[in-house]
Design goal:
By secondary structure, the chain is α+β, with helices and mostly antiparallel strands. The chain is built from 14 helices and 18 strands. It folds into 2 domains: about 280 residues, Aminopeptidase (3-Layer(aba) Sandwich); about 120 residues, Alpha-Beta Plaits (2-Layer Sandwich). Bound molecules: ligand BES and zinc ion.
């Protein structure tokens, strides 16, 4: 069986390249036709892998792709999840090869979505295809749910999963959309942050004003945005939103100790991986706690005033800031959004009106590493990589994990094959091809374990 996987590596890469050529950016309306092409591509791949059903689920938003093979009665049912949508590509000029013309350089394939999440979704498809083609069947029952709105916080999948459709019934979900802690180090992710994504709209005067004539008397909305941000998160990185931290569950001592044993070079992380001068954040917490187990408040962009070439002396009438809060267990998105709204109201400077609009939100998630599906995954990874599997959390969000837990009552196994330097959401995103091949074999091996 190993031979089918080894013999077909080149064709796996060819197939992945076709997938990566589709610019399925979910945040941009002009890419809608590409979104559909990507969904159809996934459905066709599932059919050709040997699933008995593979179809698009239409609804408000981008199509979901559903597939199934249920020929192993009495065996567990695994629900595979992935997303076919990708992030925008700007700044385009920083890419060394065009984002939608996949380029293999050395052991890496460069393209938007290579790691997040087309390459990793494709691992699941090829694992199933390999087992079907080499043995004619699968060791367990398998379902696929692949969405096209993960990167933009779309709600199609939430509406679908929360309607608890019988066809989603499964024993566990398996998701490849996270990272390995280090190259060669098999990793399971057992915690993700949630998110509350907002826009802060600040209105000053009802039209732009001459900054010489009115400066000294007029409210300035961009200054107000800055003041609000600084009031809600101080220079030390401490968040000041009343009630916001109350539900934060600290990691257990054993988990913290396991984090201390992870192979980690803070200098490399700071200077090479991030390309930053030094680390920031609340000094009362360790780095891993800050990025995995503490909430955040980050500003992503500020729009307003004059940003063109040269100088224009104006006091803008309005400003908008995109601000997100990342949440950790046991924080609740609706409650956190309300706390944020109230805090903005309290610190809003005089002369301006501030309004918070909620764009999307998702709950944090934490899975029990003692769960049998996680334990079997750790064994499969350890065998595939020849190293003991480590357990980490991630600071990113995968909204469906909370939905599977809440509406389907199933745990998610987060078996990621990305690497810390894959440049997710950034120029020159890549996927390490040895991880692609090994991922396919590890997922196939995992299904065999589960079928025993
Ligand atoms: N795959 C990422 C999340 C991720 C990255 C998890 C690295 C673990 C390690 C996912 O596609 C993503 O970026 N999600 C968005 C979700 C948001 C838009 C709701 C995120 O985290 O910003
Ligand atoms: Zn992703």
């Amino acid at each position: 069986m190993a031979t089918y996987f080894e013999q077909n590596r080149a064709s796996f890469v060819d197939g992945l390249k076709s997938f990566l050529r589709i610019p399925s950016i979910s945040t941009l309306p002009e890419n809608k036709p590409d979104i559909r092409r990507a969904a159809e591509f996934v459905a066709a791949e599932l059919r050709q892998a040997g699933l008995t059903r593979a179809e698009l689920i239409e609804g408000e938003g981008n199509p979901l792709v559903y597939g199934e093979w249920l020929g192993a009665p009495g065996k567990p049912t695994i629900l595979f999840y992935g997303h076919y949508d990708v992030q925008p590509v700007d700044p385009l000029e920083e890419w060394k090869s065009p984002p939608f013309e996949p380029d293999v350089r050395g052991d890496d394939i460069f393209a938007r979505g290579a790691s997040d999440d087309k390459g990793q979704t494709y691992i699941l498809v090829k694992a199933v295809e390999g087992l079907m083609k080499s043995t004619g069947r699968l060791p367990v029952n398998v379902k696929f749910l692949v969405e096209g709105e993960e990167e933009c916080g779309g709600e199609h999948i939430e509406r679908y999963v929360s309607s608890k459709p019988p066809q989603l019934q499964a024993d566990a979900a398996v998701i490849c959309d996270t990272e390995m802690f280090a190259p060669e180090l098999p990793t399971l992710c057992v915690g993700l942050r949630g998110i509350v994504y907002t826009e802060l709209h600040v209105q000053g005067a009802d039209h732009d004003l001459h900054s010489g004539v009115y400066g000294g008397a007029a409210p300035n909305p961009i200054q107000a945005v800055a003041e609000i941000l600084c009031a809600l998160k101080d220079r030390e990185g401490r968040i000041h939103i009343p009630g916001f931290l109350d539900r934060v569950a600290p990691p257990a001592p054993a988990e913290r100790q396991a984090w201390d044993r992870l192979p980690f070079d803070v200098e490399h992380y700071t200077k090479k991986e991030m390309g930053a001068r030094e680390l920031t954040g609340d000094p009362d917490f360790s780095l891993f706690e800050r990025v995995w187990a503490r909430p955040t408040l980050e500003v992503h962009g500020v729009r307003g005033g004059f940003t063109g070439e040269g100088a224009k002396t104006v006091i803008p009438a309005r400003a908008v800031a995109k601000i997100s809060l990342r949440l950790v267990a046991d924080q609740r998105p609706a409650e956190a959004a309300e706390q944020f709204r109230n805090a903005v109201r309290q610190v809003c400077p005089k002369g301006v009106a501030a309004e918070v609009k909620l764009l999307h939100s998702a709950a944090p998630s934490l899975v029990d590493p003692g769960n049998p599906f996680i334990r079997a995954a750790a064994r499969a990874l350890t065998e595939s990589f020849g190293k003991e599997t480590v357990y980490i959390r991630s600071g990113g969000s995968i909204p469906v994990v909370g939905l599977f837990d809440r509406h389907l009552g199933i745990p998610s196994v987060l078996m990621g094959f990305g690497l810390p330097d894959d440049n997710l959401h950034a120029p020159n995103e890549k996927f390490h091809l040895p991880n692609f091949y090994r991922g396919i074999e590890a997922v196939a091996r995992y299904l065999e374990f589960l079928g025993r």
